[in-house]
Amino acid sequence: MAEERSVQQRQHNGHGEISGAIADQASTAAEQMGRAVQQGMGRANAALSAVSERSGEAAQRTGEVLGNFRSAIETSARSQPTTTVMLAAFAGFVFGAFWRMGR
User: Fold this and answer.
1) How confident is the prediction for the chain on average, in pLDDT?
2) Cα–Cα distance, 66 to 63 (Å, whole number)
3) Per-residue pLDDT for 79 more than 70?
């Protein structure tokens, strides 16, 4: 009986060592996965920041171009009103033609 207990206790200790090793491996794997997720989040945040910065610059440039275009049209309308109206009509015609082709 004492021998059976000794064998059972050794088997139990063996299972405990295996369980402990598995728990250690699981803990190590979880830590590695956590680090990988943090690195991925850092990269994603950096990419998002870069895209936001670039889109802000593009919006600013677009605003400048539109402002310049508006100034050019106003200047043209004051100095050559007939030509400006004809160009606007032509632009409308071209826009309308493309609009119809898209339908």
Assistant:
1) 79
2) 5
3) yes
